Amino acid sequence: MKILVLNSGSSSIKYQLFNMENENVLAKGIVERIGIDDSFLEHEVNGDEIVIKEDIPNHSKGISLVIDALLDDNHGVLASMDEINAVGHRVVHGGEKFADSVKITDEVVEQMEDVSDLAPLHNPPNIAGIKVCQELMPEKPQVGVFDTAFHQSMPAEAYTYALPYEYYEKYGVRRYGFHGTSHRFVAKRAAKLIDKDFNDSKIITCHLGNGASVAAVKNGKSIDTSMGLTPLEGLVMGTRCGDIDPAIVPFLQEKEDLSSKEIDNIMNKKSGLLGISGISNDSRDIQEAAADGNERAQLAGDVFNYRVKKYIGAYTAAMGGVDAIVFTAGIGENAIEIREGILDGLEYLGFELDKEANDSRGKEIEISKAGSDTRVFVIPTNEELVIARDTAEILEG
Q1: Is pTM, for the whole model, over 0.90?
Q2: Which residues are annotated as site, described as Transition state stabilizer (predicted)?
């Protein structure tokens, strides 16, 4: 069985083609700058990259180029489109309508559109990718895998905001959480590594990248997560502020004469590591500047680490203990000093950091010393594989 996985953004399309017999990636790539000058497709097979520069005005053209690349006589991996059994799509927001991955129908697309106001930057391009595939490959089953689905197991006390209840009833204002596909993948892997039944485990997963979130996964279910109605809540991120006193919003609007769109832009795109440091949203730049004595860069890193540490402590309390802590995504998998900074002071949870093991990047490894009661791991995430697995399972089911 071969599954094509697509992640359609506003100006890009990431893709991977899986052979599900061995879960190998046959080809992968990205279409960049859709609707912008200098657009191109970068296609990779067996480590070899091919760049195709072409005018790509829309998603239809972009996905057509992906198909052409997969079928190409020189760098393709398919003899015909008949070899593709289904297409799996990443969809950011499923609202309360989707607690699991689903086969896409016209009704499902309508339901996705109904919750697009909860993710106006993400859901519309996700849906556009689905509709293009329905047009170009009408005979192929399409499956939607939602970033929010894994967190639909949260209890009401975790997802309810203390606002007038009518706003939840009318507009669905509640905590949804994101990165669910990643949290699910690494939590399951951690349970296997500690030789515990996933449905009888307590695991804290830290998805740390330019966007970042922490999840409490108890007995195989997400019971809480740091992102909320939108990805703005929770941790300090590259350009997002994370948790703040909500009264800051009207205060700054009045002081700076800002519109709602302007303050939203500040909180989402000008805050976080960038806002504190004044240098960059990239943690590598922050660490380099801090090492050179930049006090604001040092502060930005300290705030980031402290916020993650607080959430780990809070979620340990929420679950009544913790069996494993997992670091994943770009920062979590690669930032040695950041992992050490976050874990410093959490030894009371029952682990001792193995600094030699922690001196690694981008690979699966346990970074707690042998004999630790709580195990700590770095586990590279693989959201595309989760989408492919869910798609294959729905197809077989």
Answers
A1: yes
A2: 179, 240
